[in-house]
Design a protein that fits this description.
The protein is α+β, with helices and mostly antiparallel strands. It contains four helices and six strands; from the N terminus they run E-H-E-E-H-E-E-E-H-H. The strands form two sheets. It has a four-stranded antiparallel sheet, sandwiched between helices. Strands 4-5 form a two-stranded antiparallel sheet.
Length: 181
């Protein structure tokens, strides 16, 4: 299945991974992470998407989501990537960020590109697969090759503290996946 052509399936959850082009590390900067989080929450607040779990890593994001009210995941993903790319580029230009040169692509439709084309979107087809993906998301910052958190619940840009400590997320109005597990 082509990831950017995922068909809408009512009441269906997806595990989504979206990466920065060339695996450039820019989401570790708070300003960029906040752009991504605020954008995801925009879709939640506007009843286009449920988000059940998420993590923002330095060069990619993972989240579990379900489209709402007949919205298509492919449309939401397109709009999310377009808006966040534009906002990150504006921020980098305003701050004269010299890493902006890493995003020059000189394509017909754009000079700069933040996100890789397409996203890895997987259907969540079972309870076990859902649990596996939630655990993967929450443990990602603790993996040896990342080593950015000692425990999942202490990583700020993740839904882990919502599930482990029962604390509301500071950034995204989460759908509690425990209700459906």
């Amino acid at each position: 299945m082509k990831s950017n052509k995922t068909d809408f399936e009512k009441d269906h959850w997806f595990f989504i991974t979206t990466s920065i082009i060339n695996h450039n590390h820019i989401l570790h900067k708070k300003e960029n992470a906040i752009i991504v989080l605020n954008s995801l929450n925009y879709f939640v607040r506007n009843k286009k998407l449920h988000i059940g779990a998420f993590v923002i890593m330095s060069n990619h994001i993972h989240y579990i989501a379900k489209p709402r009210n007949e919205h298509r995941l492919s449309d939401i993903n397109r709009d999310f990537k377009k808006f966040t790319a534009q906002q990150i580029i504006f921020r980098m230009q305003d701050n004269h960020d010299n890493t902006l040169e890493k995003f020059i692509v000189n394509k017909k439709d754009r000079k700069l590109q933040i996100w890789k084309r397409g996203s890895n979107i997987k259907n969540i087809y079972s309870r076990d697969f859902m649990i596996q993906k939630i655990e993967y998301i929450h443990n990602n910052p603790c993996q040896i090759h990342w080593n950015i958190a000692h425990s999942p619940e202490n990583y700020e840009y993740s839904s882990a503290s919502f599930y482990i400590k029962n604390e509301p997320s500071k950034y995204i109005e989460l759908f509690d996946l425990r209700k459906i597990l």
